[in-house]
Amino acid sequence: MNLTLLSSQKQHLAELLEAIQRCIYFLDASSRKLAWPLTDDLLKAHKKEVVLFEAMAAINERFAKLQDTLGAAMRHACILSGEPADSFLKILAFYEKAGVLESVESWQLCRMARNLAAHDYDIDYAEIAEHFNSLKTLTPMLYMTAARFHKYCKEVLYIEATQTDFTTEFLQIINAE
Asked: N or C: which end of the chain has fewer CB within 10 A?
């Protein structure tokens, strides 16, 4: 029974690792559709361009999904590692100490940007451009955190992504950062 439960928990983490790779693949693909940095003039001039705003919506969604999935995986791996996981701040501190996170503050900055995207319905094009440019600036930090987290899981827990369908692209993307 206990071995089955442990095996099931390891399998779940392996699936989360695959999901992180997939999130990065699709976030990168959406990001490549835009000419960076975005400006308020560009957004004003193309305010009815569906393709542009669909790409921006995808970036918001995929940035949030990446951070949420990475957070869930970090919590799960912390539990498998036997580390305290009763608060997410303790989890972040653990991964900062383990060298997975640059800093707790960098994670919290990404979280604030992610939350603004989910709850702010701004119509000021300068602020919209600033928000997306911030996401673009923060994305490499999430990519590198994901890369270091994958390494941690492989080296410490001996767990890798379940499927390798996105592994090649994941490695190309994180190595390009």
From this structure: N
